[in-house]
Amino acid sequence: MQGEDMLLTTLENPPGYRVVKLLGIVSASSAKARHLGRDITASIRNILGGEVKEYTELMAQTREEVLFRLVERARERGANAVLGVRITTSMIMQGVAEIMAYGTAAIVEPEER
Questions:
Q1: pLDDT tens-digit profile of 59-73?
Q2: Cross-sheet strand order for the sheet of 81-93
Q3: In the chain, where are the structural domains located?
Q4: pTM of the full predicted structure?
Q5: What CA–CA distance (Å, rounded) separates 17 from 8?
Q6: 3-state secondary structure 45-102
Q7: What's the Cα-to-Cα distance from 56 to each of 5, 28, 45, rounded to whole Å?
Q8: Which of 16, 30, 31, 96 has its CA 20 to 30 A from that of 65?
Q9: What CA–CA distance (Å, rounded) separates 28 from 65?
Q10: CA dist 103 to 4, 16, 41, 85, 106, Å?
């Protein structure tokens, strides 16, 4: 994923870029609770089988939200990249999932060819 002026990558040394300065770890998270309407639909899908699209969409939206927050935190430090990005998901209580993203805020420059 790449924003207007922010490089997000799972790599620590992205090809074509030179790391100028490391600015430290940045992280962002969001905890989402299940919704009764989604639970009813999900329960029916669970009985019939198949993908629970309501939760897939919820988790995808939450990942995007968390990555947006991660970029904002990196920008606050003056970074133009977040290296080594990782995303984790965990249950923090019954019916509540947390998605967390973290990485190293950095300043990178394109390598000269």
A1: 889 999 999 999 999
A2: 7-8, 81-93, 96-110, 17-33
A3: 7-110
A4: 0.80
A5: 12
A6: HHHHCCCCHHHHHHHHHHHHHHHHHHHHHHHHCCCCEEEEEEEEEEEEECCEEEEEEE
A7: 29, 20, 13
A8: 16
A9: 9
A10: 18, 19, 35, 4, 9
CA 9, CA 85: separation in Å to the nearest integer? 6
Instruction: Name the token pair of 38.
Output: 């989604």
Residue in this structure with the two tokens 């998901």, named with its chain if needed: 89
Looking up tokens 């299940």 gives: 34
Q: Which CATH superfamily is domain 7-110 in?
A: Hypothetical protein apc22750. Chain B (3.30.110.70)
pLDDT score, position 39: 57
Residues in the chain: 113
